[in-house]
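In the laboratory, one determines a bound structure by crystallizing the protein with its ligand and collecting diffraction data. In a computational setting the workflow is compressed into a single prediction: the sequence and the ligand go in, and a structural description comes out. We illustrate the idea with N-(5'-phosphopyridoxyl)-D-alanine.
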Amino acid sequence: MEREIYINGAYLPESRAQVPVMDRGFLFGDAIYEVTAVVDGHLIDNDLHLARLARSLGEIGIAMPATLAEICTIQQDLVRRNAMTDGTIYLQVSRGTQERNFLPDPDMRPTFIALTQPKQLADTRAQTNGIAVDLVEDPRWLRCDIKTTQLLGQVLAKQAARQGGFDDVWLHRDGQITEGASSSAFIVTHDGRIVTRPNSPAILPGCTRRAIMDLVAQDGLRLDERGFSPQEAGTAAEAFLTSASSLVTPVVRIGAHVLGDGRPGPVTRRVQALYMQAVRRSPRILPQSAPYEAV
Ligand code: PDD
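The predicted complex, in structure-token form:
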């Protein structure tokens, strides 16, 4: 069965879902994206992701392609049509299609696509054993708070880290860790405090990060929003990263530094447990026949 992809109002088999060559997303990376997790049929932190989609589009002046409620309906339809119990829903909105020109026409119609990517997101080997992250100078532009599809810096950094024997990479700028190449970065100090840097144009405001900050506060864990250096990270008691696609993943080695005994620590385990409890409380997309016909 071919995957169905949503594209500008229609659900199409993947082989027929096409975007014009002159689309500005393709030519200029002039596009915004979002990624929401589906775990065991539950839709995770989706209100946060849709709010961030609206914010990112607003920051670069692309019109919303539909209301947030309509987008949520599309996400749920796609999950049902593709019978995806575990994986991600990817949304992308580009400014639209026109003759190649740096200056966009003011009245362009955005190109809106949505697709599902089935994948096991919970109980992964990385979440069980922890991962090793490399450290590199942050190569990105200065508006990392906008979730654009311009991801070449992250692609190259991840590729180099993988070639160097690491699982992933954390970025640093001006003596401080900014974030992971596709995740928010956290460390745990030797007195048990969780540390993550405050939101700013230097990082993406992570939705998983936001959810976790609320969960740890309710649980009585202590969390400080402050910057931390690569040196502090390398000598931390524990570390972890968060994202829609990796949930809460322990980091057990940073560059050459093994943290503690090289196994995920108790604070990270607690954060993982709190997040999985929240996942199980999240709204479930029940399998039912889809209300739209493919065109
Ligand atoms: N990336 N920082 C960056 C640079 C990211 O790309 C991501 C997510 C995050 C975490 O955000 P959230 O918790 O809202 O997923 C932080 C997604 C998963 C991606 O690009 O596929």
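The two ends are 17 Å apart (CA to CA). Keep in mind that any predicted model is a hypothesis to be tested, not a measurement.
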